[in-house]
Design goal:
Chain lengths: 382, 276
Amino acid sequence: MSVETARSVRVITGNEACAAGALAAGVRFFAGYPITPSSEIAEELALELPRIGGFFIQMEDEIAAMGAIIGASLAGTKVMTATSGPGFSLKQENIGFACMAEVPCVVVNVQRGGPSTGLPTMPAQGDVMQARWGTHGDHDIIALAPFSVSETFELTVRAFNLAERYRTPVILMLDEIVGHTTEKVRLPESVEIVNRAAPDAAPDRYLPYRHTVDGVPPMASFGSGGYRFHVTGLAHDETGFPTNDPVEIDRLVRRLNDKIARHRDDIVEVERTRCDDAEIAVFAYGSTARSARQAVVEARELGIPVGLIRPRTLWPFPGPEVRDLGRRVKAILVPEMNLGQMAHEVEWAVQGGCRTVPLGRVDGQPIRPGEILELIRKEIRD
Amino acid sequence: MPLPRTDYDQYLRLDKFPHIWCPGCGDGIVLKAMLRAIDRIGLTRDEVCMVSGIGCSSRTPGYVDFNTLHTTHGRAITFATGVKMVRPDLTVIVVTGDGDATAIGGNHFIHAARRNIDITVVLYNNWIYGMTGGQVSPSTPPGKRASTAPYGSMEPNFDIVALAAGAGASFVARETVAKPVLLDRVIERAIRKKGFSLVEVMTPCPTAYGRRNKAGDAVAMTNDLKERSVPAARLAKLSQEDKEQAIGTGVFVDIEKPEYTEQYAKLVESLRHARA
């Protein structure tokens, strides 16, 4: 379905673009808790949501904000919360509930330096593994990472669409640079939006956790159309009620993982730039990809055959794409504002096909194009 | 006067029985009292959303044919807040326990009361963590034993009624399962109240609490609840010593104050007018 947006050319920050994208996608409930550097998203939606009959609430803590959005989603609305590192840690248990109970929701994490209170006003990319494995138990997850203000708008809309399509939490991984950078953006005239599939069975035959062919059960809303159903974080069967049957438990946990994995081609987006003749590739995401893009331009001017692979989807990890590239280049360089979290994933993906060279920074400073260029030059010499 | 005959079966998911509660547990009495209250108000199954946390009490929603949500430990009120905000027409009831609501979920409990959102919390207080095997809770009386307080609890316990009242709840009551008719009357009033309402229900746990504290069997524990019950109005007249032994029952708070979802609706309406 295509919906009209407030088309305009605007000069806004990434956080404002995130709020605008959420509104375009149809968010009608936001619960949050103040935390730097994400608070502008809550502030923007506190202003806008009541104007359109939507709901905004500042909860008493991060855990409460996550709980509230799950409740509101079960009652039939599109929901979002936004936070940063420490708050993201606090939300993990309820994110797991949303995975287990298959509740669509968007969780924005504007990453700052960690661990702990770390660097509230400085950028980092140290939460990418937490996005994947932060909550306990075997589960799959979707995480997206925009690298510009306009892409933040675009991927926020996409985060909602994927959450609704696959009945899952989607983590939108901004970083402080993307969140606080001001850029001119041209918001699109309309955006494609996806709404969760409504039940195709009558209330007395509705199975809220049916093992459907595509792995995603249609979803009813509390208090609508006579669909009364039970939702629990306990292992459950197709009816939604707790079960201790090993066969049912195994089916459930495998389906929760499989429904994402089998649709990876629909979910995973990777941008490749000048990779065709490249001897060296740079793998970069989020704000670091901007420096990487510049470094590639400068290296090409020096005649160095280097390309950029930029995942817009961090999870599921674009393993096949990276593996394919790894067969054709000598090395993949992985600049990131952490100590090699994704470099490890790249190394695993290439399976020895090429060298993986991490370039990590954890001092609250962005990785500059010059640092990446220097590494490119070093690698081409070696 | 006998109670009118009603068919509570319509509210139950009979195929989910037998329930998991131990013999002598009072939780089933609370469940039945809630159903009598809901029936008297005349709510349909579709109009009720029952939300719970983790623990023995929190297994209640599995047995009732409403919109039911069994959430994470301590967080039921937060999920319920999301449901109630977007669907203020639904009757939202949170069932929780003393540990769930006043230990891990204490923050949400006081803030929902402060906000005065129209949610009814029915808090089953059995002085112990029953499901996990009898650990000490914030409501375990000082000196009483638990698996993690083998020498007796060293901590003062919460007065949950005072906690809810102090936090701003518009309706606060306490009753025991020893007086089931009074219990369903007070739950009915709590559900009808527009605003945050708490009913603390004293209910025996013979298995995890009674055994350890030589409180006798379920009958003895229930009789004890009955004997120690003192109506709220008479509580002030007791000596300090008697007051410590007493379980104050009845309605402690019943006040009118702005309800959160109504205030929110007014805001939306005023913004609409401002634009028009």
